[in-house]
Design goal:
The chain is largely without helices or strands and about 375 residues long. It is built from ten helices and three strands; from the N terminus they run βααααααααααββ. A hairpin with a 5-residue loop joins strand 2 and strand 3.
Length: about 375
C-alpha cells in the first residue's frame, strides 16, 4: 500500500511537514537539514575538503643568537682647539674701498616747460552743430477717426450646446451586481497579543560594566640631571663684536627748490589745436509734404461680404423609444457559476480519508489512504 506525505496531501500549497535542523528521532548525531540549497545541489562524499596552508600557532622558544653584552662607554676623542683669535683690530681695506673714489654730483639743466597756466583772451563760443543745423517745424493737427458704436443683436442667446442637444439620456433601470455575497470569517476567541518570538526569546539581565581603576602615578626617586653633552663639552670664549666697515657718506644737503621738470615735458610741449566740426551727410530722401491719410492697402482693398450659414448634414434628432423592457443580463452573469470553497485536508490534525502510519527521521509524516470496502454480490 502506498504511503502519502503531508506535503503531498496538501492542495493549497501552504502546509508542509515540520523539518527539524537535526534528526530528533534518531540518536546517530548526524545532522541532515532539508533546505532548498541541499535539494538543488547534493553533496559529494568522495571529495575531501582542501587542506589549510596556514602555519600553526605554536610556541617558539627564544633563540641564543642575540645576547646582552657588557659594553663600556667610549670616551669622546675631540681634538684640541688650536685656533686663537687675534687681539689686534683688523685694519686692511677692501678692493671696493681702494678702487672707488667719491666724486661730486652736479645737477643737470632741466628743459621742462613752466607749469604756468596760459589763459585765452577770446570769449567762449557755446554754439554746437546741433543748434546750428536744427530747423524747427510747425506740427499739423492730427486727424482723429470717430470710434464705432457697438450695436447689440436683437435675437435671443441660445445656450443649448450640441452635446446637450444630441445627448439627452436614455430611460432604463440600473444594472444589478452579479457578484456573490461576501461572507466574512469571524472568530470569537480573544486575541492574546503574544508571538512565538516573544515566548522563545526572553530578555536577559545584563550586568553593568565594571569601571577599571587607573594606576596611581609614582614619581621616580632621586633628582633629575639637567646636564647634556653639549653643556659639558662646550668652552665659552670672550670675543668682541665686529663693527661694519663701510665708506663715509658724501651726501650734501641742497637748499635749492624742487623744479618738477622732466625731459618728456620739455621735449614734447602741448600744442594748441581746434576740434574738427561734425561732418553731416546730406539727406537723399525728401520729406513728405502732404497730409497723412492713415489708410493701409489692406483696408482700402478689403471688401466685406455677408456670411451665409452652412447647412447641417446631421440627421434629425428623433429618440427611438421601445415598449420592450430593458434587458440587463450580461455574458458574465450568464456564464458565471459560483464554486464551493474546498477545505485543504492537510489543515486538519488527522486528514479525512487517511490513517497515520509513521514519522521518519527527517520529520515527514506519512499517512495511508483508506479504501472503502466493496461488498461482494
Amino acid at each position: 500500500m502506498r504511503s502519502w506525505c503531508l506535503c503531498q496531501i496538501c492542495t493549497c500549497g501552504r502546509h508542509h511537514c515540520p523539518h527539524g535542523a537535526t534528526r530528533i528521532y534518531e540518536t546517530s548525531g548526524i545532522s541532515c537539514p532539508t533546505t532548498e540549497y541541499l535539494e538543488k545541489y547534493p553533496t559529494y562524499g568522495s571529495v575531501l575538503p582542501p587542506q589549510s596552508l596556514k602555519p600553526k600557532q605554536e610556541f617558539r622558544p627564544c633563540r641564543d643568537d642575540y645576547r646582552a653584552w657588557d659594553v663600556q662607554k667610549i670616551d669622546l676623542y675631540k681634538p684640541e682647539q688650536t685656533y686663537h683669535p687675534p687681539t689686534v683690530k683688523f685694519g686692511n681695506s677692501t678692493t671696493f674701498q681702494d678702487d672707488f673714489v667719491p666724486q661730486e654730483i652736479k645737477p643737470r639743466q632741466s628743459f621742462k616747460p613752466s607749469p604756468v597756466v596760459r589763459r585765452s583772451t577770446v570769449p567762449f563760443n557755446g554754439d554746437t552743430s546741433h543748434r546750428l543745423d536744427y530747423v524747427p517745424y510747425q506740427l499739423e493737427f492730427k486727424f482723429a477717426r470717430p470710434k464705432e458704436v457697438y450695436k447689440p443683436t436683437n435675437q435671443p442667446f441660445e445656450d443649448l450646446t450640441t452635446h446637450r442637444y444630441d445627448f439627452q439620456g436614455l430611460v432604463g433601470k440600473t444594472a444589478k451586481i452579479c457578484r456573490p455575497p461576501y461572507t466574512r470569517v469571524t472568530q470569537n476567541a480573544h486575541f492574546e497579543g503574544s508571538t512565538e518570538f516573544r515566548e522563545s526569546f526572553q530578555p536577559w539581565e545584563i550586568p553593568a560594566p565594571e569601571a577599571k581603576k587607573p594606576q596611581e602615578y609614582v614619581p621616580p626617586a632621586g633628582t633629575m640631571q639637567l646636564n647634556s653633552t653639549s653643556h659639558l663639552d662646550y668652552v665659552p670664549h670672550q670675543t668682541t663684536r665686529v663693527s661694519p666697515i663701510r665708506p663715509v657718506s658724501q651726501r650734501r644737503s641742497n637748499n635749492f627748490p624742487f623744479q618738477g621738470k622732466s625731459t618728456t615735458k620739455e621735449d614734447f610741449p602741448a600744442w594748441e589745436c581746434c576740434r574738427q566740426g561734425l561732418i553731416k551727410q546730406q539727406q537723399q530722401i525728401p520729406n513728405p509734404s502732404g497730409k497723412f491719410d492713415g489708410w493701409s492697402t489692406s483696408r482700402s482693398h478689403y471688401v466685406r461680404h455677408e456670411l451665409i450659414p452652412t447647412e447641417s448634414c446631421k440627421p434629425a434628432h428623433a429618440l427611438l423609444k421601445s415598449s420592450a423592457p430593458f434587458d440587463d443580463t450580461t455574458m458574465y452573469s450568464l456564464d458565471y457559476t459560483p464554486k464551493k470553497q474546498e477545505i485543504c485536508p492537510a489543515s486538519f490534525p488527522s486528514p479525512p480519508g487517511y490513517i497515520f502510519e509513521t514519522t521518519n527521521s527527517r520529520g515527514h509524516q506519512f499517512f495511508r489512504k483508506v479504501t472503502p470496502a466493496v461488498e461482494a454480490f
